[in-house]
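tool_call: predict_structure(chain=1)
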Amino acid sequence: MSRLSNLYPSVRGKHVFITGGATGIGAALVENFVTQGARVSFLDIDDEAANALISRLNMKEHLRYWHCDIRDVNILQTTINNATRAQGGQLDVYIGNAANDVRHAFDELTPEFWDNNQAINLRPQIFGAQAAARLMQPGGSIITTGSVSWMRRRPGFVSYTTSKAAIHGFTRTLAQELGPRGIRVNCVVPGAIQTAKQMAQVVTPQLEQEFLDNQALKFRLDADDVVAMALFLASDDSRGCAGQAFIVDGGIV
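tool_result:
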């Protein structure tokens, strides 16, 4: 259950497409945009989690799920096109959320691992946005997802941090390119966010304390903190924002 209370009337009725929407921050995005009255399409490869989310929200008239492996650019772009057609042909907001921050040692990095990781973390951001921009009218909003991990020089997942640094550059360039068409492009940059996956696979009590020690704000952030920024960037209230990276990290960088 979301704890967010602010309403954005301009989001109501918009078609919002979200990648990686079945779990974690993605599921929180789906829930909150549906609650705002948006028509939400989301993709994932975790059918079980996606169907459980749809069942829990019980708002099928506003919500459509699409199974998609984002590593295949053709399938990704076709899914975006089909989802938009199913929602009346208009796409208003595109959120590139899907990512995989799997840890790996630099000495053990292989070209095959690198290519697969970039095919998840970077390539879909670019080609998903390309497909979305073709469907958008003036007033559209593309929201990429970065990370403070590369700003903090976090070791142990150089492929992921490289992709996230690249997304910042991509966002700034794309904003300049699409701005004349009236399409805003901005990046939401999460810090140390509590999600079920992170808590189960990565976060130790020592790392938990490190987050708090390094943050200016002494509480752990959750997915709703990221969603709050995405809602603003999707709404008409952010009409003057383009090419920016909006950091939501409790002051950890």
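agent: The chain has a mean pLDDT of 93. Proceeding to next step.
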